[in-house]
Every structure is written in structure tokens, then in C-alpha cells.
Amino acid sequence: MKNKQKTIKLLIFSLPLFLLVSCVTDQKEEQNVLNAINKEVQSNSKAYTNLEKMTSEIGHRLTGSDNGAEAEEYTYELFKSYGYEDVQYHEFEVEAWARDSVRLEINKQEVEEVVSLGHSPVSADVEHQVIDVNNGLRADFDSLKNEVKGKIALVYIGILEDSPEGLKNIHRSEKTALAIEYGAEGIIIINQVPGGVLLTGTASVTGSLIDIPAICISYEKGMDLKKQLKNGEEISAHIQMSNKSEMIKSRNVIATLPAKEKTNENIILGGHLDSWDLSTGAIDNGIGIAAILDIARTYKALDLQPKRNIKFVMFMGEEQGLLGSKEMVKMLADQGELGNVSYMMNIDMSGNPKGFNAAGRTEMLPLFDEIGAKIQAVDSSYENTNANKAGLHSDHQSFMMEGVPVVGLVGNLERKVYSYYHSNGDDFSLVNEEHLKNTVRFAGMFLWELANLEEIPTKKLDFEQTKDFLIEQGLKEELELGNEWKWGE
Ligand SMILES: [Zn+2]
């Protein structure tokens, strides 16, 4: 009896000590892992050279094209070469848009620099008078009323410098929707980046084909046309185009780093591999892909085993409407696996993070700060400035719409890289090697901590909770416009 008491006493006293010691060693080990991740990336990162290779050898990565398929295979092989055993293609078949030819004549003179915008009709041949609709906002269309009908609307993609203060710009697809509403027969969108830069991207708010041809012309040409119209000259435009909208096959690429403990829980790190076809998409989203691949490489090089499965995903079809991520969500739901996705982290056109975005999951913010402090202990230059605002229009949206917690980067790239967004100028010369390395280091450390938390304090929301969450985040109206709102009034 006495002996037993002693043992119990010993247990009672030593247990907390044991827990404390093991907790301290855990923390120390965790900090060691972060240091190791940092060191591995600093000395052996392949992100920059991989991206250079991918952009120069493959070129663009349009979904459904031969180039796109080549990019899928390139990343598949890279995962394999890093030692990933579980690498899979997730094939899907969807309708996707692709340009064929376009021709623009202004007063019978051909304009060389022109591109079609996504989801323009499969075939169009229109010739009409051009009308200047300024910034293409509702107020601009309103002020012209019936005059737009039967004409070709000329709109600026941004907000013109001489506009009144405080105007809020809208997306090119929304300007196009207004042009259609006001009866225009075509729309010419003027790009805002000088130097003959042309932009593409969708002109459809819903992802379905639109009824009128939509094209983009250069800033210089556009300003020229505006001047002529202002001087009272009559301008006619002749737009001819053909495009394809057909069923294509494409593949997401998924590589899994298996869990050591919580084998049922998955953390997804994803980004879109596809690009538009005017350039090599080095920024959109080459930098995201190169960073994800290098985080995967780093973990394997260090032989790390996370508490939860980490799934690295290269999504295709993002540019044509988040096609690949929607397909993956559908697949997971069909398999009853969606509830096992604890978190989805997305990297799209972002990098050099100074923090992470909790995207409306306020309960995560203290943990984000804590993880950030650990990163700061490795590198004091890390700012640990976290944000908490949910947004749309990249692959995280497909997961967020199903109530899955998502996280993004609070990026800190130079402004100039964004001027070439969706344009023929988005190439490797814009990539900053140090910034790319910082993405791999900081996102790699953050993801590691997330995957190894004892408990994740935020959970998947059910159907009704997701509705409330999206309303609270102010996203309802935009989702309705895009035909994505599935909750009714
Ligand atoms: Zn993108």
C-alpha cells in the first residue's frame, strides 16, 4: 500500500514534468525543423531555375492545349524526382474556350495589335460605328442611354486619369455585361499599360460564352481613337473573329506527403499551373507553381513527416473559370473526402509574403501570429503582418464555397509585375529570385506549422454556415453576378 502510494505520488509529480519536458523538446524540434527548412531553401532552392526551364522550354500552359499537357507531365515528373511515391493525375473533361483568329479594322485600316477576350463568340463578324463609353461603368452607360445600342462600345479597362475622384473600377467582364445590357454589338477594351501591351482574360461574368465579340487594344491605339472621337470624327470598327469552345481533357497533378499521425486529415497546398496563351505566365501563376514544387522538394530533402497528410496540387483550368479546382472538390465530395480537408492554402500570383491571410477565420488569427513569431525567430526580416479578408477568383474559392477553411499569402511583390497581368508581357524577366525564395521559405515554414498543429481550431462549415460566412465576408453580390450563388435569396 505504501509503496503503491509512493508510485502514484511519483507519477503525479513526474507526469507534469514529463509533459513539460516533452513539450519543450517538441517546441525545440519544431523550431529546428523551421531552421532546417530555411537553410535548405537558402542553399538548394530550385524554384527559380525550374521556372526558367518551364517557361523557356514549354512556353504558355493553356488548359487543353499540347503545352498544357506538357506542363502537367513536367510537374508530375518533378514530384517523382523529388521522391514522392504517391503522385497522381486527376483527369477531367470540360468545355473550355480557346482563341483562334481575330481581325480588327478601324475605318477600313487593319489594326495589328489586337487580341480577343475569353468567352467571346465562336464566330463573329460585325461592323458598326464606335462610341466612347469612357470608363465603362454603369454611370457612363447611363449617361449615353440609347446611343450605345447598335454600336461598338469603346471602354477603358481602368479608371481614366481625368475622372472624378473616388470612382470604383469594375472587372472587364462586368463592363462587357453592361455593354450587352445597353445593346452594344461589340466591345473594344483599351488596356492601361503603355507600350503596346495587350491583355486577355475572360469577358464573361458567368464563364459561359457571351453574345458579342470582345477585344483588347493597346493603350496608345485606344487613346488615339478617343481623341478622334472627341474631335467629332466618325469611326467605324470591323471586328472578325473565330474561337473554339469545345470539350477538352486536362489533368490536375496531386502529390501526397503522407501523415505520420492524423492519416485522415489533409492539408492542401495548391496553385494553378495553367496560364493564358499570350505569354509564358511567369507571374500568373509560374511563381506560385515554382514555389509549391520547391516546398515539396524541401520537405522531401529533409525527410519530413507531417502530422497530417500534405497534398500538393497543380490545378489546371483556373483561367477559364476555376475548372480544375471545381473538379477536384467534386471528386472529393463524391468520395466523401471533402470533410477530411482541414485546410486549403492557395498561391496565385503572390509571393514574398509578409504574412498570411486567414480569409475570415478570425479564430485562427492568434495562431497565425504565433506561427509568424516562430518564423521571425528564424528570420527577423519576416514581418508577420497577417490579414483576415476572404476574396474570390482563384482556386481557393472552389473550396471556400464548400465551407473548407482557406488561407492565402499577404504578398509583397513589386507593383510592376502586376502591370503585365494576363498580357503578352508576363514573362520570366519579371521574376525576382530573392522574392521567390522568400515565398518558398516563409510559406514552407507556415504550411509545416499548420500541418503539425495539435488541433486546428477552425472547422469545415456546413451548407447554411457557409452561406452566412459568405454574406458576412461581403461576397454574396459578386457570387450572384457570376452565377455562383447557390443559396437563393
Ligand atoms: Zn492566376
Automatic annotation (TrEMBL):
Leader sequence segment: none
One GO term of the biological process aspect: proteolysis
GO molecular function: carboxypeptidase activity; metal ion binding; metallodipeptidase activity
Residue ranges that the Swiss-Prot or TrEMBL entry lists as coiled coil: none
InterPro entries: CPQ (IPR039866), PA_dom_sf (IPR046450), PA_domain (IPR003137), Peptidase_M28 (IPR007484)
Subcellular location: Endoplasmic reticulum; Golgi apparatus; Lysosome; Secreted
Major localization listed first in the record, in broad terms: endoplasmic reticulum
PA domain sequence ranges: 133-225
GO CC, any one term: lysosome
All residue ranges annotated as the Peptidase M28 domain in the record: 252-441
Keywords of this entry: Carboxypeptidase, Endoplasmic reticulum, Glycoprotein, Golgi apparatus, Hydrolase, Lysosome, Metal-binding, Metalloprotease, Protease, Secreted, Signal, Zinc, Zymogen
Oligomer status and interactors: Homodimer. The monomeric form is inactive while the homodimer is active.
Protein name, per record: Carboxypeptidase Q
Species of the source: Marivirga tractuosa (strain ATCC 23168 / DSM 4126 / NBRC 15989 / NCIMB 1408 / VKM B-1430 / H-43)
